[in-house]
Amino acid sequence: MNYSIQDVFQRYIKGEEFNLLLRNDVLVFNDMSTLKVVYEYPLRLNAIIMMACWQGTVEFSVNAENYAVHTGQFAIVTPDSLLRVTHTSADFDAMLFIASVDYLMALKLELKEYLPYYFSLQGGVVIPLCDNCFSRIWKISNILISIDDEEGDTSSVRRSLVAALVESLRFAFDHHMPSSQIPDSTTAPVMLNNSLMNKFITLLQEKHNQEHKVIYYADKLGLTPKYFSQVIRQMSGKSAVDWINEYVIVEAQNRLRYSQASIADIADELGFASQTQFCKSFKRLCGCTPNEYRKK
To answer: Strand runs (DSSP E) across the chain, as ranges?
Structure first.
């Protein structure tokens, strides 16, 4: 289930501080300590998420695929992806930029044109940054955060700064994408498997609330379940069953945390035969019941 920026962040960040940070479906932070209560739980936003890590390490999953970002690295997460932070070091800090797709399109920033290869990944990517890129991103994000409406109508200034920040992030992406991640004619077998992996994740995004069996996904991709499972394990280090289970359960965590839907309704929405089956699966994978998780 997809939630807006306001749905998620207003649950935790209230009052004037939040009102100053949120402008036209755009959030910019350069102090991650203020967000810890938010990113402790899975979330899915109709927004692009970009992060430049100043120091420390953050580990997270996007659509059940694992990533780690260290000092001097930059990460992007596509809109509608299911994001879960799994670990942060004690010294972790970063600049976080979140903007709704509608707002960026209103600025005539077509993301698919800006980040074509990234969007082919349908999830997330991590790249290194040089000192110049870090400095530029830091300066623009600080100006964005410092703008106060008491100074008058700053909407046009803010739009220009958001456009400048996105352009700086795009520049960083274009100039620091490791060549090993860019496809060429010599990596055809690997790219074929990457394509299969991406198709599986896309299909899982679309059908996780209806289909939980490997045979369904293998059939849709024109493969036998055995070969399909071998390729998925080879590419990701996890079995297809693990991918499916983790994706469904993380989606359940997202709904338990950010919606008021009953556990029975969530079980039904995610394609479980009964609430009992859902609760057993959730406890087996999470170590607690859905009700216990919701009360945390």
So the answer is: 26-29, 43-44, 47-55, 57-62, 65-70, 73-77, 82-88, 93-100, 124-128
What average pLDDT does the segment 214-220 reach? Answer: 94
Amino acid at 52: A
Query: What is the pLDDT, as a whole number, of residue 184?
Result: 45
Residue identified by tokens 């087996």 is 284
Predicted model pTM: 0.65
Instruction: Give the helix, strand, coil percentages of the chain, each rounded to 5.
Output: 55, 20, 25
pLDDT at 20: 42
* Planar angle of CA 90, 91, 93, nearest 5 degrees: 120
Rounded to whole angstroms, the Cα distance separating 173 from 6 reads 27
Q: Which residues contact 224 (CB under 8 A, 6 or more apart)?
A: 218
96: Cβ contacts below 8 Å, ≥ 6 apart: 27, 28, 29, 30, 32, 35, 49, 50, 51
DSSP label of 138: H
Q: What is the CB neighbour count within 10 angstroms for residue 135?
A: 12
Q: Which residue has the tokens 């991709």?
A: 221
pLDDT at 66: 83
pLDDT band at 269 (very low <50, low <70, confident <90, very high): very high
